[in-house]
Amino acid sequence: AARILQDLGFTNVLLLKGGKEAWQDAGLPLEGQETEAGAS
Fold first, then answer.
1. Of the candidates 15, 21, 34, 22, which has an alpha carbon nearest to the alpha carbon of residue 6?
2. What is the pLDDT of residues 1-34, one digit of tens each?
3. pTM for this entry
Protein backbone atom coordinates (compact mmCIF):
# COMPACT_ATOMS: atom_id res chain seq x y z
CA ALA A 1 0.00 0.00 0.00
CA ALA A 2 2.85 2.41 0.78
CA ARG A 3 4.32 1.95 -2.69
CA ILE A 4 0.94 2.65 -4.32
CA LEU A 5 0.58 5.89 -2.38
CA GLN A 6 4.09 6.94 -3.41
CA ASP A 7 3.31 6.08 -7.04
CA LEU A 8 0.23 8.30 -6.79
CA GLY A 9 2.42 11.22 -5.75
CA PHE A 10 2.09 11.17 -1.97
CA THR A 11 5.38 12.19 -0.37
CA ASN A 12 4.69 11.78 3.35
CA VAL A 13 4.36 7.97 3.36
CA LEU A 14 5.76 5.64 5.99
CA LEU A 15 5.79 1.85 6.18
CA LEU A 16 4.98 0.69 9.70
CA LYS A 17 6.58 -2.64 10.54
CA GLY A 18 3.93 -4.71 12.28
CA GLY A 19 1.06 -2.66 10.91
CA LYS A 20 -1.80 -1.14 12.85
CA GLU A 21 -1.58 -3.83 15.51
CA ALA A 22 1.99 -2.83 16.39
CA TRP A 23 0.89 0.82 16.56
CA GLN A 24 -1.92 -0.06 18.98
CA ASP A 25 0.31 -2.38 21.03
CA ALA A 26 2.69 0.56 21.51
CA GLY A 27 -0.21 2.51 23.04
CA LEU A 28 -0.34 5.07 20.24
CA PRO A 29 -3.63 6.76 19.28
CA LEU A 30 -5.83 6.01 16.27
CA GLU A 31 -8.22 8.40 14.56
CA GLY A 32 -11.27 7.78 12.39
CA GLN A 33 -13.69 4.92 12.20
CA GLU A 34 -12.67 1.31 11.95
CA THR A 35 -14.49 -0.94 9.50
CA GLU A 36 -15.14 -4.65 9.82
CA ALA A 37 -12.96 -5.88 6.96
CA GLY A 38 -13.56 -9.49 6.15
CA ALA A 39 -16.58 -9.81 8.42
CA SER A 40 -18.98 -12.55 7.32
1. 15
2. 899 999 999 999 999 899 999 999 999 998 887 6
3. 0.49
